[in-house]
DNA sequence: ATCCCGAGGG
DNA sequence: CCCTCTGGAT
């Protein structure tokens, strides 16, 4: 593997890759992240622009009826679960945290509809807590590049944090996800034109064996 | 037709 | 561990 090269390329391509969820407060980032499952940033940003204008904070969301929220987020998929969870979380925030978002992983994961991935995104992007959330894409890309080698997401996160300088953890998280979606697909990766191809173990195996051993997920 | 930046529930 | 929820992108 070639961690230095990967990190250098990461720094170069990151500004173009950044597809952050639009938000102005930790609560808004929490909601946007909960909406992002099985959806695109563009789609989420499109609905939250209107949503956050009308319902800017946890207190406003806590008063929402599910049907009302569903009508805003229907195009994002999984809308019933998302609406139910977001409202339940908003109500819990109002009742137990004075409408604010808690800052610990344990408290975040106790909110309805908030799991390890969502908690990590909020911790890293709203509260500056060092973390690299490992999802399907992060895991696959890291494996292919040789930055991490594990079937266990926790182990992968630790390996990534060991290889990547702390200042780059947040960018790396965004970049790995973006790259996994746009370029390094599970099935049909677009290795042609990928700036990492010369450093990528997967690309090498793919070129030589026609059936690479390093897979997705 | 197939896959998805996830969580809850059986 | 496996299933389900959903529309949208490819």
- Strand percentage, roughly? under 5%
- Total helical segments: 12
The averaged pLDDT comes out at: 87
Per CATH, the superfamily of the largest domain is Hypothetical protein, domain 2
Share of residues in helices: 55-70%
Overview of this protein structure:
With 217 residues, this protein is mainly α. It folds into two domains: 26-126, Endonuclease III, domain 1; 132-209, Endonuclease Iii, domain 2. The protein contains twelve helices and no strands. The chain has helices at 3-17, 26-35, 41-54, 58-62, 66-73, 79-97, 105-109, 116-126, 136-145, 153-163, 169-182, 201-209. Helix 1 packs across helix 11 (169-182). The two termini are 20 Å apart.
